[in-house]
Amino acid sequence: MDDVDAPRRASFGLSLLVALGWYATVIGAVFVGRSGIADTPNRDCSAAFSCLTPQEEIGLAMILGAPILAGLLFITLVVTGLLTRRVPSSILAGTLSALGSVVVAVVVGAVWRGVR
Prior knowledge:
Keywords: Membrane, Transmembrane, Transmembrane helix. It is built from 4 helices and no strands.
């Protein structure tokens, strides 16, 4: 009698994996792009952190950027939870949650910088 199906919802876990995959892709792309840049032959290594290898630079960026990455992951959890209720595709929900969390983090950073 009632042939109306319930609306399909995206899986939270799969959507979160897609969002984390985007973060891993961006970090990997930065690493590959940075490691392909040749060093200048006559560098002045007197300043702190001026003669790091690309691998050391990525490691330092991951350590110093850990609070930002933790904030992005928290925002991603919240946004993914909200999007999986409305979007039927896990791939679309994960992609939108990664993009949305980056946008939220940029806006929060701009507001924080404006208040300072």
